[in-house]
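Input record (one chain):
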Amino acid sequence: MSDPSVLFAPFDLRGTTLANRIVMAPLTRSRATPGSDAPHALNAAYYEQRASAGLIIAEATQISPQGKGYAWTPGIYSASQIAGWRNVTDAVHAKGGKIVLQLWHVGRISHPGLQPHRALPVAPSAIAPLDVRTFLEDGSQVMVGLPRALETSELPGIVDDYRRATQNALDAGFDGVEIHAANGYLLHEFLSAETNLRTDAYGGSVENRLRFPLEVVDAVVSVAGAERTGIRLSPVSPAQGMIDSDPAAAYFPLVRELDARTIAYVHVVEGWTQGARDLRGFDFAALRKLFRGTWMVNNGYTRELAIEALASGYADLVAFGRPFIANPDLVERLRLDAPLNEGDRATFFGGDARGYTDYPTLEAAAAR
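The corresponding structure, as predicted from the sequence alone:
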């Protein structure tokens, strides 16, 4: 077996020194302030508890009111949201941690009940996802319906939303940003030929389907710098009703373009988001070879898989998602190869401190 110490070695992420190679993946918890979608003191406590991660990627955060797809998810477009996130980043930094913000536009995965003026959600094309639900501010679950196709003239405005959100994230004290281009949300929808049936310069050929995501990347880099910009991709995941019969056609050219832009990292979900590590015939190892920067892997990684991925040179960082929900001291548990707490699925989304900030650490459990 490979030397476990590789998982706990410091790592230089383009000038940002990480204490270890363990990343807390972005995890939607739906606990922002109702009405304002601003983070609050309990959110700061939650992230502070997990600051021993080499890097925290804060939960997906909408860049605009239009980008919202679920009740009580945080935003990064208002003064109160920026102030709320500043409390979070200050708490993490006080514990010696590093934290970046994931920038999110949900695209078609929304509902008029979550949109300004009860407008239809937007997407590259007017295609509804199959059997996908979201939940509203009253707690009810509703089916995601037919979105409205974006006009070509609207796209520069969304790019500007990403640009402003990036500056707001930096103003809030984040160490960088991650562009969410995965899991069936807006940028992912543009990449797939099944969800992007446009006939303008943003649809049809692979070059056209890459155009809007790359315009977003360029806008974010123009504010944060390439060294503070990452992106999340999920080439084969069917999350949120996503379909892509030929993901290699888009993702190999996309990663070449990302490499040319020298962004800080690519964060790849291998297999089905929150599901099996079924790679569906996709050659992730070959994709990785196209990017000379930091390669972050995610989805179903155990301690043993993570150590092997790092030791072999395939990955530079390993992101853990749900294990961080129930284990605020996940880094220490991995170091000791200690048992992990089981998460309470009933409290994953929405609620208060229960199932959020009350999971015991090893130290606390031993003191009982």
